[in-house]
Amino acid sequence: MKFEDFGRSGAPLHAWKSSSRLASLPAVSCDELVPPHARAVVLAPHPDDEILGSGGILQLLARRKRSLMLISVTNGSASHPDSTHWTSERLGIIRPQESAEALRRLGLYMNGLQWIHGGFPDNRVGDQLVDLKRFLRTYLRPTDVIFTPWRDDGHADHEAVADAALAVGREIGAAVYEVPIWAWNWASPEDPRIPWARAHKIHLDRWTQARKRHAIQAFASQLTPDPVNGRAPPLNPATLERLQQAFEVVFL
To answer: PANTHER family, from UniProt (predicted)?
Structure first.
């Protein structure tokens, strides 16, 4: 599936909200996912993935004063290919700044978030999979609980990060949980490609949902049309509504 197809072929929001399959997913709490002694590590292939997939989880863990680490694998500089306005140089500066603002809106810096920048090439993470595994081994511990995008999420960088996380997690004995992000935009509630047997829901209260929505609005480069060519933004309204429900999902 091509990246530009995301958000255009998935089931509409009302289909997800009326889905008996989704409603019947077992709930899991952050206390169950991340014990008090553990550190939660969120892997973000691009700036904004940490908020889109785990913005609620991050807030809930911060309230419980869990140790938190965010690893931004790339700087997101390839989100607008061929744009004369959103050049890779501009995006490489702006997108990490947008993540910083989004994290501030979640209130995370006051909770001691450790933030690591990987510097891997956007849209080509898979070309450096060996280096990525080596990089992750530098930072990950056996007692960590690692949140990575789902291995079959539909974006090559998401899949590469998941492959590396799962491999290193097995090596060191750390727990690795997968989070669907782009899958919400090409799948349907009955899609057999989704590993529903492993899926669990983390419920988000209204305050947590509101802060996540506010944080997502920090990603202006991803939310507004290109001012030169008028091309639609990567995150369109249909995409956003599927990513801002009253829960987040993890595959255990």
So the answer is: BLR3841 PROTEIN (PTHR12993:SF29), N-ACETYLGLUCOSAMINYL-PHOSPHATIDYLINOSITOL DE-N-ACETYLASE-RELATED (PTHR12993)
Distance linking the first and last C-alpha atoms of the chain: 25
Is the separation of the CB atoms in 58 and 151 below 8 Å? no
Task: Compute the Cα dihedral for 231, 240, 60, 25 and give only its sign.
Answer: negative
User: Rounded distance, CA 98 to CA 100, Å?
Assistant: 5
* Tally of CB atoms within 10 A around 245: 17
> Which residues are registered as beta bridge partners of 199?
251
Domains of the chain in sequence order: 3-251 (3.40.50.10320)
- The CA–CA distances, whole Å, from 34 to 141, 146, 212, 228, 231 equal 14, 9, 20, 45, 41
Encode pLDDT of 107-141 as tens digits.
Answer: 997 667 999 999 999 999 999 999 999 999 999 99
The predicted-structure confidence for 173-225, as pLDDT tens digits, reads as follows 999 999 999 999 899 998 999 999 999 999 999 999 999 999 999 999 999 99
CB neighbourhood size of 123 (10 A): 18
**For 221, which DSSP code?**
H
